[in-house]
Amino acid sequence: MKLIIALFMAVSLWGTDTVVKGTTKVLTFSKIPADATVRFGAKTIPILTHPRDAAKRIAFIPINYRCKTGIKTVRITYRDGVKEIDLNISNGDYPSETITVAPSKVTPNKKQRERTSREYHEAMNIYRTFSKKRYWNQPFIAPMNSHITSSFGTARMYNATLKSYHSGTDFRAPVGTPVHATNSGVVVLAKNRYYAGNSVLIDHGEGIYSCYYHLSTIHVKKGDVVKQGESLGLSGMSGRVTGPHLHYAIMLNGIQVDPLHFHTQVNRLFEDEPPKQP
Ligand SMILES: [Zn+2]
């Protein structure tokens, strides 16, 4: 009974939160029944250990950039009941931009389409894999110290024909700038791909993957265990680009989310809580 009251209290503090599509909602439970499950839409959201407080649990809810706006409900189910939390999904105020690239990168031929399809399915199989082990135990860092040239979520028009959106954050980077692992993990892909160019994907465990694209050189190989800050390679301009830069992305429970917003949310879990009022 005590557990359930603590859960209700944690939940009631949130009310209806407005969450921008493409971002991450973090739920923190001071106590939650051991049999509880968290669902958001058709997805079961893993309940994870709080990185600083072993007594607490957390859940990362990725909000798909392409989801409809309006109220969406998180359902927490356990033996003695159900608790619902409404999230108000908003569009945010993402900018838009037009981009001109080689025509073959917008309208690929049959052979290229076969390749991109293969690469897409390979990546999705990786993102669908849930590693139970947590490899990270400290706040996320930036992949490089540089200006951001295009932020996540920007609506994009390629060569006036292809409508898309920017699924990561671009950092200004002359060719040859070291690219660092933003947290510890295991390299699950390190190779050249059609759109992403030379790419590295890191599994951080528990459904969190980070992605580093358009590299000129890759320093790691599949299966390598990397520590936060370790060099993964050098930035470049391989793949579908207009110039040299690093594209950095986070995939969370199979959904692309704003990587730097995700960092901020995770890193907040490491901060001291404000002292309680007497
Ligand atoms: Zn990018």
Molecular structure report:
The chain has 278 residues and is mostly beta strands. The chain folds into two domains: 2-91, Peptidoglycan hydrolase domains (Immunoglobulin-like); 96-263, Glucose Permease (Domain IIA), CATH 2.70.70. It has helices at residues 2-12, 110-127, 259-268, and strands at 17-20, 24-29, 37-40, 43-45, 48-49, 57-62, 70-78, 81-90, 96-99, 148-150, 155-158, 162-165, 169-172, 178-180, 185-193, 197-205, 208-218, 225-226, 231-235, 245-252, 255-257. The strands form four sheets. Strands 10, 13, 14, 15, 16, 17, 18, 19, 20 and 21 form a ten-stranded antiparallel β-sheet that branches. The longest helix has 18 residues, at 110-127. The model has no long low-confidence stretch (mean pLDDT 91). The structure holds zinc ion. Zinc ion binds next to loops.
The number of E-state strands comes to 21
- State Rg: 20 Å
**How many structural domains does the protein architecture include?**
2
Helix/strand/pairing category: mainly beta
Please name the fourth-level CATH homologous superfamily of the largest domain: Glucose Permease (Domain IIA)
Secondary-structure element pattern, one letter each: HEEEEEEEEEHEEEEEEEEEEEEH
Beta percentage is 35-45%
CATH topology of the largest domain: Glucose Permease (Domain IIA)
CATH class of the largest domain: Mainly Beta
- The outline comes out as globular
**What's the architecture of the largest domain in CATH terms?**
Distorted Sandwich
* Low-pLDDT sequence parts: none
The largest sheet is:
10 strands, antiparallel
Q: What is the terminal-to-terminal distance? A: 26 Å
